[in-house]
Amino acid sequence: MKKIGLIAIALLLSGMMVFTDCKKKSAGGIRTANGGTSQYHIGIVTGTVSQSEDDLRGAEELIRRHGSTASGGIIQHITYPDSFMDQMETTIIRIQALASDPLMKAIIVNQAVPGTAEAFLRIREIRPDIILLAGEPQDDPEVIQQAATLSISSDFISRGYTIPWAAKELGADTFVHISFPRHMRYGSIGLRRQIFEAACADLGMRFVYVTAPDPTSDIGEEGAQQYIIEHAPQWINQYGRNAVFFCTNDAHTEPLLRQLLEYGGMFVEADTPSPILGYPGALGIDLSVETDAGDFPAILAKVENAVIARGGAARFGTWAFSYGYTVSVGLGEFAKRVLDGHARLDNAADLYAVLGEFTPGAKWNGGYYIDAETGAQAQNQLLIYMDTYIMGRGFLPTTEQIVPQKYSQIKFQLRLF
Q1: What is the model's pTM?
Q2: CA distances (Å), 107 to each of 138, 160, 228, 286, 322, in order?
Q3: Mean pLDDT for the stretch of residues 223-228
Q4: What is the pLDDT of residues 105-129, one digit of tens each?
Q5: Residue pair 53/276 in contact by the 8 Å Cβ criterion
Q6: Interacting residues of 284 by C-beta distance below 8 A, sequence separation 6+
Q7: Could you count the other beta carbons within 10 Å of the beta carbon of residue 53?
Q8: What's the first-to-final CA gap in the chain, in angstroms?
Q9: From 29, 73, 121, 305, which residue has the greatest number of CB atoms within 10 Å?
Q10: Virtual CA dihedral for 175, 178, 180, 184, nearest 10 degrees?
Q11: Are 115 and 142 in contact (CB under 8 A)?
């Protein structure tokens, strides 16, 4: 039996024992709004609206579906600080505090910022019955694999090839990668940058790395965004209208898109792709009604029309559905199905089925992470990605591309510039 299968059985058995004990102490559990009894709670931790709105909206959708614990439902949502790097202990304490609820049976963190792994390890010591799920972990793979029951990441191996491939399909001759030292220290982001470089060389494109301020540093998010606004026109002038730009931080996305639409340049997809990441602010369009309804086909149509009106047809792309939103609501639903006995933690098909319910018509691909050093396949870290949608052109067959095996064998080397 796979290791993750053993973990799943152990967690569920221990969860049953703890629940039995809690049930005795709580006189049958908590009454829900519809008169039923909540036998467990699911906690979800996201960033705030300013740092990762899509992730938060997915958590809100879980509450809409299943109710908040405050009103008798099963979902408890909290956020970590915007300056999570400076307040890592606060982040850890907030996540860990969820485990003080005796009915808590699953905790999801999306995005799983630094500190998540430590919080999970602390929870394991006191509550081994809780299922711990990490969305888009920023800890190194070997670290999060030791702490989380299961983690899912956008496929930083495959996307290291497919994003430059898509850029080439759009006619790009240069790939401009915007980041900063903190992100380059992360194994997943730093390794993807190396694969970008190798893929660009193989595809006949120039690769350029440029540094921008970290939004979590003293300069803050506003200062980091102002830097992008001021420097993007210079980069476009330097590297040309046939340059594709990619940034590793969500806060950089909106000002970058605004300047690309104004001065030229191209954009394939964001680090955490979504039609509501960056585009509404850059285009000055109101998507509040569609976003509140979670209507991503309507959101995409509105964004696409606005991009085309600005002359961006066949030059700007995204995923048709929000990755951050899908991961939050998808992991929440997956956890519920595992707790209800309708899905298994070690069955990727069960997880794909849940994600697919929130992304109708979109294709997914991926696989379990393979360590380039040892060749060992992880049993509890799944890498996933979706087809790229190009405004005014439609879907590119991204998930159908055969990613050369050599890219999965590239070993991470720390490079800060």
Answers
A1: 0.79
A2: 17, 29, 35, 32, 21
A3: 97
A4: 999 999 999 999 999 999 999 999 9
A5: yes
A6: none
A7: 21
A8: 43
A9: 73
A10: -40
A11: no
